[in-house]
Write a structure and sequence with these properties.
single chain, seven-stranded parallel sheet, alpha/beta, 17% strand, 8 helices, 193 residues, Rossmann fold
């Protein structure tokens, strides 16, 4: 992985650990010589991550729809900024510019982006790793729900394994760098269970 797409909140959340994790991720990207691609915002976890990455010399590329940029939430100090017309264009370009996807704590938008990248991998649309940084147990209920989908026969164990998760930045990045899409996965031709 040379460039990591990070999905994260436009809010900071209530725990300092969320912002601290964004700073730790920026440090890890700098140590690995990786670039950051993200939603282009200047607020919340997005802003913390971008500022921390820029301060450490990480090239940071933002992708933001015009309507959000015009609301003055676009970051003005990035290495590169792509202003697009729609959220759909944003997600497509984020995926195109990235070698992997990692989600920090966030809200509905972060969840939607995570599940799209995760589903695209399941469908064989990309072979890129998808990771979830479970800061302070934030994603414990979500991970339990995903295990429930397997137990109830809606998600195969193979596809459940497409989402890597961990509580610490460096071990998760190492797992993502080592991840290889299983050969011969043909999800489109198979039933749900």
């Amino acid at each position: 992985m040379r460039t990591l797409c990070v999905y994260c909140g436009a809010a900071a959340g209530v725990r300092p650990a969320y912002g601290e994790a964004a700073v730790a991720l920026a440090e890890a990207l700098a140590e690995r010589g990786m670039g950051l691609v993200y939603g282009g915002g200047s607020v919340g976890i997005m802003g913390i991550l971008a500022d921390a990455a820029l301060a450490r010399g990480v090239p940071v590329t933002g992708v933001i729809p015009r309507h959000l940029h015009d609301l003055e939430v676009g970051h003005n100090g990035l290495t590169a900024m792509h202003i697009v017309g729609t959220m759909h264009e944003r997600k497509a370009l984020l995926a195109q510019l990235s070698d992997g996807f990692l989600t920090l704590p966030g809200g509905l938008g972060s969840m939607e982006e995570l599940f799209e990248a995760y589903t695209w991998g399941q469908l064989g649309l990309h072979p890129k790793p998808v990771g979830l940084l479970n800061v302070a147990g934030y994603y414990d209920p979500l991970l339990a729900f995903l295990d429930h989908t397997v137990a109830e026969g809606f998600v195969r164990p193979l596809h459940r394994g497409f989402l890597l998760s961990g509580a610490e930045v460096n071990p998760l990045l190492e797992a993502m760098a080592a991840w290889v899409a299983p050969p011969g996965v043909r999800w489109l031709d198979e039933p749900d269970r």
